[in-house]
Design goal:
Elements: E1 5-10, H1 17-30, E2 35-39, H2 45-56, H3 63-87, E3 91-95, H4 98-108, H5 113-124, E4 131-136, H6 139-146, H7 158-174, E5 179-183, H8 188-207
This protein binds adenosine-5'-triphosphate (ATP) and magnesium ion (MG).
């Protein structure tokens, strides 16, 4: 593979992103690909400090501060981790990326979506995923899966979660080639089958180029 492949995993908390990313990693590794798994916020040293503030800070964080913290984490992550691995030809699987900013800070917090797109472009140098999975689940299912333990972003409330879920759906409708929505109410195995079928098509297309 002369250029790496960048795949992101999106959806509301508890939709199954981490479960699927781990299964996809095993699948791709077994096929002989070199794969790295990463996440936002907080993949790197500096990012872990930012993650800790974003998810566990007990005082008030203004919406604008929250937005810049997510973007600051992303810019460091892209420059020092994602881009170098892609340039080395690896497959990078990333748990949350730019679509999370649009869904949570844009649709959820109701900040200006065009402005967020511009800020995402600055943070990433316009590096976009080749493919994005959106795992769609109802708020009730997500809450059941999450159990009682909630971080700061998971504790905002049901109205917010609903706005985020609908925002994600809009994003997938607006970007049908990149964002593939999968019904994540299905069993882990069925969601995985749907995911692998899409990845396999992309890999076939690339190897036939
Ligand atoms: N399709 C599924 N059916 C039933 N349970 C599932 C399914 N997918 C994941 N789960 C379970 O739901 C819980 C949350 O899954 P997971 O951690 O993968 O979600 P997540 O999207 O990564 O959540 P978070 O955003 O909080 O990191 C886990 O206990 C997992 O085993
Ligand atoms: Mg997770």
């Amino acid at each position: 593979m002369e250029k790496g492949l960048f795949i992101t995993f999106e959806g509301t908390d508890g939709c199954g992103k981490t479960t699927q990313i781990n299964k996809v990693k095993s699948f791709l590794t077994s096929k002989g690909y070199e794969v790295v798994v990463t996440r936002e916020p907080g993949a790197l040293d500096i990012g872990q400090k930012i993650r800790d503030i974003l998810l566990h800070h007990e005082g008030t964080i203004s919406d604008k501060c929250e937005m810049f913290l997510f973007l600051a984490d992303r810019s460091q992550h892209v420059d020092t981790f994602i881009k170098p691995y892609l340039e080395a030809g690896k497959i990078v699987l990333c748990d949350r990326y730019t679509d999370s900013t649009i869904a949570y800070q844009g649709f959820g917090r109701e900040r200006d979506i065009n402005l967020l797109k511009e800020l995402n472009d600055i943070a990433t140098g316009k590096l976009m995923p080749d493919l994005t999975f959106l795992y769609d689940v109802s708020i009730e299912t997500a809450q059941k899966r999450l159990g009682d333990e909630r971080d700061r972003m998971e504790s905002i409330g049901t109205d917010f979660d609903l706005k985020v879920r609908n925002g994600y759906k809009r994003l997938s409708e607006e970007n049908p080639d990149r964002i593939k929505m999968i019904n994540a109410e299905q069993s882990i195995e069925k969601v995985y089958e749907d995911t692998i079928s899409i990845i396999s098509k992309l890999l076939d297309k690339r190897s036939n180029k």
